[in-house]
Amino acid sequence: AALVAAATGATPNLDDPALRQRLKEARQVRARQQAREEKRWNGAMQGLAEQVAASADESKRLDLLLELAELEEAAGQWEAALEHRRELQAASPDEPHEIMDLATTLGKMGRVREIDELQRLAERALSDPEDKELLEHASRHIADCRVDAARSASVGAAQEVERPIDGYALWRLASATPVSRHSALYRFSSSDRTRGTPLGKSAGAELRHVTWHVTMLARVGPNAEGPLPWVERDYTPVSTWMDWEKGRCDILIKTYRPGVATGWLRELPLGSAVHLSQPMQTLDVPSLVPDSSALDEASLGHSGVLLLLAGTGIAVAASVLRHADPASCFRPPGRSRRPAAPPLLQRMERAGAGVAAAAGAAGNVHAPRRGRAGVGSAVRSAPPNRVPMWRERDQLCCYVGRVVSLVRDVWKSEQSVRVREC
Question: What residue ranges in 159-254 does DSSP mark as E strands?
Fold first, then answer.
């Protein structure tokens, strides 16, 4: 209210029901936009059907209905999307874009005969000579959809096909290995070419350093998070980008007794289908911010970074650490050389009783080994409260766990420490 008053000179009445409704709708729009960007279709659709039904403005209702149809189609809910596409087309029977959108949905569903009817409808709607170019464009699109429909119909008749979900690829649960009483390492495999790549690229198509994560769809059935039969959960793989390129992904997951997604995953038989999203950027490296494009060169690094991690959060250590290893980072071989273990590492080794190991359930978290250049060692049997992390830019290594005593012993002489939550 104070900000609006300063900008407009008028203080808004926050008790006004109409204003409160507009603010609520604005928050819902922002939440949907964020969910769409992250391919979280269930979250994006939460409450949208109710908004469509409650809208008194017909123009606004049709806009919401179009958004709902787009989300349903992206989520593989083609029958629901088709119903809403038909309603939109009926509201604007001569609108060519509505005809083409309906043809797109029918093409995915293999409805060849109905697509032929749309071609005749387009010819009637665009019979004016001035609409010749628009009719040609619509006819080409409808013809492409007819080809898609014929292909979908033939494939569907030959075998049961898992419907594609926009932004996700089909994986299989290959193994589940207990790591502790409450966590396990889940390995997934895939030959789906739509799985994407975690390689970060700049506008010039050059590889750049990023940490990344994926979203898993847990098919738990009806739930409170949205109308779709799954919930969406983000995970940082402990496997490398090279493993992903080969169709393998390892995720260390803690099982919570009331957990909706982890409870479903715990009971999932080996070989079951699982949808994982295409890799999504988490942080830029070395800035460790979501987007460093607006930062100048001096702001990209930090004098020191201390990451405090617990439980399965050690996956973040693996993700950051790989950028210090020429064998696992994105840079081409020969572009970077791993420096020797810094003095700070030696001091922390003494404070940590000389333990220098990596605790990664898949053996993918590396720690520098003194006296040897190149790739560090990978030790699976490291104590869970002594997990080292190392950053090339700052030459910093810290042990996770027993943080208070280590910080007191090692950092008390340091001039300043910048801490960033992640």
Answer: 168-178, 183-189, 200-201, 207-208, 210-218, 231-235, 248-254
